[in-house]
Input
Amino acid sequence: MYRAIAKNKRNTVFIIILFVIIIGFLGFALSFLMGGDPLTVTIGTVIGAGIFTAIQYFAASRQALSMSGAIEIQKSDNPRLYRIVENLSITTGTPMPKVYIVNDPAPNAFATGRDPEHAAVAATTGILELLDDAELEGVMAHEMGHVQNYDIRVSMIVFGLVVAVGFISDIALRFTLFGGRGNNNNSNPIMIVVGLAALVISPLVAAAVQASISRQREYLADATGALTTRHPDALASALQKLSDYSRPMKKQNSTMAHMWISDPTKPGIVDRLFSTHPPLAERVKRLGEIGGGF
Output
C-alpha cells in the first residue's frame, strides 16, 4: 500500500511533465496559426497554463463540489452516512473529511481534495437509498481509499490540466476559424494544417491520459476499501447494484467524471473508448478474488 502511495506521488510529477509537453506542443502550434515567435508563444502558453493549473489545484475541489450540487452535512443531518465515514476515518487513521450529500437519484459517490487534511467525500441520495449499511461502508471505504492513496491529489492535477488543455484548444480553434489566421498569411500552409490538427488531437490525448490514470486508481481504491473493511463481498455487492441500477446524473460534467465511483454519464461508443472507469463486472470479479484471499 505504501508503495502504491509513493507511486501515486511519482505519477503526479510524471503527469505534470506529460501535460507540460502537450501544452508546449499546443503553444508551438498556436505560433503557426496566429503568428509570433514560436519560442515566445510556447513559453507564454506553458506559463499561462501553469498559473491556471496552480489556481485550479487549490480551487478545483470546491469547484467539483459546486458543479455536482453537493451540500455539506453534519452528523445530525444524516447520522448513518456521517458515522460510517467517521468510523472509517478512525480505522484508517486519516483526518475526518468533510461529508457532503448530492441530491440526485443516480447511485454514486466521489472523493475530492488535495490531500487527507483537505479532503471531502460525497454520496448521492440515490446511493443512500439503494445500499444497505455494509454496502455503503464498502463504497465509502473505497472513497476513503482515494484519500489514503493520494488519488485525490492526482485527480485535482489531472482535472486542472485537462481543463487547461481544453480551454486553450477551444479558444485557439475559435480564434483561428473566425479571423485569427488572417494575421498570419505568410505561414506555411502545411504547418497551419499541422497546427489545426494539434488543436484537435491534444484534448483527445489529454482525455486518454485522464482515462488511463483513472482506471488504475479505481482498481487500487477497490482493493484499499476491501482491506479497510475486511469485507470485499459488501463492496462487490454494492458495485453490482450500481451496475444494475445505473443511471446518468442530473448534473453531468465530463471534466470531473473520473472522480465518481461509477461513470456519471451515459457514454456512446466513442465516449467508451475514453471511459475513465473500468467495467463494473471486472471490478466485481477482482473483489471476488480478493475475498477468496482473506
